[in-house]
Automatic annotation (TrEMBL):
Residues 182-297 form the PurM-like C-terminal domain. GO terms for biological process: thiamine biosynthetic process. Residues 41-146 form the PurM-like N-terminal domain. This is AIR synthase. One of its GO terms (molecular function) is thiamine-phosphate kinase activity. Pfam families: AIRS (PF00586), AIRS_C (PF02769). It comes from the Bacteria. Keywords: Thiamine biosynthesis. It comes from Methylomonas denitrificans. The lineage of its organism: Bacteria, Pseudomonadati, Pseudomonadota, Gammaproteobacteria, Methylococcales. InterPro entries: AIR_synthase-rel_sll0787 (IPR024030), PurM-like_C_dom (IPR010918), PurM-like_C_sf (IPR036676), PurM-like_N (IPR016188), PurM-like_N_sf (IPR036921), ThiL-like (IPR006283), UCP036540_AIR (IPR011413).
Length: 322
């Protein structure tokens, strides 16, 4: 087996894609609403409202993560939700949290992390649910935002250029696959960096984007392609990466500030330059096509990662919508 075949197999069978496959199982049980204007599968539900959209999303966290990384779990409750709003061309309005713990002392670091991130990103926590009489700590956070123009996983088109924009000014929170470019960064810089996404939407430079999740950059691209009923070819060596960081670890990590975008070729230089001006690495890493197959390229070799003609990943493609 070649190195690329081995890497492709490990990404395909890794925990990042395994968690996303669970979405398809859940989708089988959700009712379809024929003719509904709200598609399912984006980073947020986009609800038409006046001359724009209300954006609604939520995140829940694994119990062992909340127990072992309590402060950071609380911080992520805001950070990850905020990224989902911006990934769709929006701006956050407010968050609510649901927290369970075995007493106040166990809840405190979670709430401290939540409060810190709320201040950093300028998003108020306006309510939620509290239970301090549970046998273990648990956390879920929801967010409301608004956008004038959408960036959507359903809006990519064939023959567009795939870009990855990632903030490399961070470090791994060892020993995990979490690249932290947020907790030690200046808050004003973080907020202005995120403003690039609604700017792209409102200036018609981009219509399709997605926040890089725990599925990593490859898994996130696969979800975007599935929603747009597309395939593509990705050059893994073109993905922006910090010096001296292992390629496989980087491809599988959650980068805290990272987005994939599908952009018309004529607009690529302008989009890359906007990120570059903010000190964020952005590069063309591939191209979309109508094959519904995602292939990875490394040097002169190509490997098939996923064939959406044979198997869905999240089960949220156009055929699933009403």
């Amino acid at each position: 087996m070649t190195w690329l075949a081995d890497l492709t197999l490990r990404i395909r069978e890794g925990s990042g894609l395994a968690h996303k496959r669970d979405i398809a199982r859940v989708m089988q049980h959700l009712p379809r609403h024929a003719g509904a204007e709200i598609v399912v599968g984006d980073d947020c539900a986009a609800i038409p409202d006046a001359d724009g959209y209300l954006l609604l999303a939520s995140e829940g966290y694994l119990n062992d993560f909340v127990a072992s990384q309590s402060w950071f779990a609380g911080y992520c409750g805001v950070m990850v939700n905020v990224s989902d709003i911006y990934a769709m061309g929006g701006r956050p309005i407010a968050v609510v949290d649901a927290i369970w713990s075995n007493g106040e002392n166990q809840a405190k670091p979670i709430l401290d992390g939540l409060a810190t991130a709320a201040q950093v990103y300028g998003v108020p926590v306006v309510g939620g649910h509290t239970n301090l009489r549970n046998d273990a700590p648990q956390l879920s956070v929801a967010i409301l935002g608004r956008s004038k123009r959408l960036l959507s996983s359903f809006a990519a088109k064939p023959e567009q250029i795939l870009l990855a924009a990632i903030d490399l000014r961070g470090q791994f929170r060892e020993p995990y696959l979490w690249w932290d470019a947020s907790t030690v960064a200046p808050p004003e810089r973080l907020r202005q960096d995120l403003e690039l996404l609604p700017t792209l939407a409102e200036t018609d430079l981009c219509a399709s984007a997605k926040d890089i999740s725990n599925a990593g950059v490859i898994g996130t691209l696969l979800m975007l392609l599935e929603c747009s009923d597309l395939g593509g070819l990705i050059d893994i060596n073109a993905i922006p990466r910090p010096a001296n960081i292992d390629l496989e670890r980087w491809l599988r990590c959650f980068p805290s500030y990272g987005f994939v975008l599908s952009v018309d070729a004529v607009d690529c230089v302008a989009v890359i330059e906007l990120f570059k001006q903010r000190g964020i690495a952005c590069a063309a890493i591939g191209k979309t096509d109508d094959s519904r197959r995602l292939r990875l390229k490394g040097g002169d070799e190509e490997q098939l990662l996923w064939d959406l003609n044979r198997e869905a990943l999240i089960g949220c493609g156009p055929k699933r919508q009403g």
